[in-house]
Every structure is written in structure tokens, then in C-alpha cells.
Amino acid sequence: MRCLAAIFLLLVSVGSLAELSDVEKKLSVIAKVSQQDSIALLERVVNINSGTMNHTGVKQVADVFAVEFESLGFDTNWYDMSEVDRAGHLFAERKPALTSKGQCLLLIGHLDTVFEKDSAFQSFERDGDFATGPGVNDMKGGDVVIVQALKSLAAAGVLQDLHIIVAMIGDEEKSGSPKSISRYHLVEAAKRCDIALGFEIATGLQAATIARRGSSGWMLEVSGKRAHSSGIFSDRVGSGAIFEAARILNQFHEQLTGEQYLTFNPGVILGGTDVNYDASQNRGDAFGKTNVVAQTVTVHGGLRTISSEQEAEARASMKAIAHANHHRGTDAVITFSDGYPSMPPTQGNKAVLSKLNQVSIDLGYGPVEAYDPGKRGAADVSFIAEYVDAIDGIGAQGLGAHTPDENIDLSTLPMLVERASILIHRLGREENL
Q1: Lower CB density within 10 Å: C or N end of the chain?
Q2: Res 100: pLDDT
Q3: Which domain holds residue 19?
């Protein structure tokens, strides 16, 4: 009886939102009473460790979501990614019951977290309207928003009219290589769809992402002449590898800093007489003595850019600095590795954002604006940006992602589910934007 009374009161309040259709008012009501189910599902999947390299755990989370999708009439597929040393991906698809001219929507989430099995951060802990736990907002919270939005559409009797593909990626936090294999199924799904919605962390209830910077890697390897330190700076010995590495890094900082959306970060540096570095594990060791001129330096860094053109220009500048004007007795080579492509702010992406903005206004939540791409990292939506119009960052609301303080505001879940379900309904019924 309490539930029926709550629904009645919600119907009265939603009825005042004149811009919503009858179906959308129903979706709003259903979403607003979904909080406890959302929290229960979130707690269940957060308590399964699914660090990227915990392949068993990633598959276990996929199995939980697969049951949810199958209960809604979706066909599910698990694509094993052992070929690239990753667990795999869960895809779910439901086609409309009748021939539809509506748009195909691709909903994107991911199953893995940055917290591996040896992390001390392992469990869901609730304190009132807030909860902490590995992946509560990045992005198991967003995955739950996807599931609950689809449940709302089913309960309202309109899910059968929509063509939806859900992609839950198993290695977003540390993607397998080559990307041509690890992102093959995501790209193929995008080619079949018209619009993609990414449910990564919400940057705020009034913002969404229409552009993301690409992320790639660089490796600087510097060599010098090993000798007694009493001879450093002499014509015979030169300056050593560490001083040369410092020169190059300083010139990167002096010449490239300040360009909009361009950042570059030397994340690891090892130098000395002997250096051992494992790039796949992002760790290594070095040996050296204060009375020996260092002969080796390895620097592993990241590069973020808003477009392929900006990436190419930055790489060219870094290469010119690294390969010229060496200190005496030293040499250096810089190499680059591809990572996540950029997601430029296209007109199509802006059009999708305008649809979300209108939904938010119609619900009485106010406008939604484009988030500054300089403040966002890379994500899977970038791999499909060239094939489909997309927005991202409409998942869970929380703070502290990638830290032991990661948290979620549970009170926002009904609103996020409500907004997502109505957006999916509107976009899925349109013939085009």
C-alpha cells in the first residue's frame, strides 16, 4: 500500500510537468521508485572484485548483468578477449518487435575497475545517501543506471519499440592491445547504430561530455657514457644520461605547455648505471652510484590531445626536441604508442546534447551544458566517435574515482534513471536528429 500511495503522489507531481508525454510521465514515476532496486544491484556488483586483470571477477560481473538483460528480452553475447590478455566484453541487443524507423542506440558501460585483487579497497559501504566502494561511480554505478533505465522502459511498455545495443567493456581501465582486437566488437556495434550514449561518471548533473581528449603514450630512452663522476662535463665523458633527460623534459615543458587541450605527463622515470623497466606493468628498477656517470634513463609518459591533428603536431615537436641538440656524449630516442583516440566536439554530438538538455528542462532539473574536455580523461566512447553521434558522462554522480575514497551519491540514482529512460525513449523513436 505504501508503494501504491507513493506512486499516486508521484503521478500527481509529474502531472504538472506539461512538457512530458503520458508515456514519459509514466517513466518518471517508475524511475523515482527504483532507488532501492538500484542500490541492491549496485552493492551486489561492487562486492565482486573486477580489477581489469582479474579476469574471473570481470566475467562474474558480466554474468550478473547478463541475467538482467536477458530478463528484459535482450540477446546477450560474451566475447572472450584472452587473445589480448583480457577477460572479455558483454554485449546485449534487443531489436524492435515490429519494423521500426527509429534510431538504433548504443549504450556504453564497462565492467572493470582499477582496483585489483590485491587492493585493500574491496567492498560496498553505505552511510545514508552516500556509499563508497571500488567502482561505485566508475563505473558500476553507470552500469546500474543503464539497467534500471531499460527496466523502466520495459515497465512502461515501450522497450519493445526500441532498437538498443548495450556494450559493457571488460578492459576500459587498461585496454588490451592491439586495439583492433580489443575494441573490434564495440566499433562494429557503433557502425550499426545512429547514436551512442556513454554512462561514464557524471561530471555533474548539469553537464555532459560531447568531446574527450585522446590518450596515447611515449617512451624516451636516453644514453650517456658510463665513467667515473670526476670526469663529468669533460669532452671525454660528457654530461651523462640523466642531465640529457632533464634537458629534454624541461624543453617539453617550456615549448609545449599552454596549448589548449594539450597535456603531456612523464609518469615514470628510471635512471642510473643499469635500468630495467617493464612497460606492460608500469614498473621497474634502477641501479647507480653517486660516483658513476649515469649511462641510461627511461621515461614513460602519456600524451592527451583533442584531435588527431593536435596529436601529430605534438609528437613532431617532442621528437624534434628529443633528437637534436644533445648534451655532449649523449643520445636519445623517443617513440610513440597509440592509445585512445580523441572525440572531437562535432555538430552531431552537440545535437544529442541538446536532446538531453531538453529532457532535463522538461523534468524541471534545469539545463545541461557541454563539459570542458580538458578536464576529462579518455574513454571507450572515443573509439566510436568517428562512426556515430555521441555524448558521455551521464552515469553515476560521485567523487574520488580511482582512489580509495571513491563514492556515489545514492540519492541521485532515481533522477539519473529517470532522465536516461526518457532520453532513450525520445531518441529511439526519432527517425533522425
Answers
A1: N
A2: 66
A3: 2-212+343-429
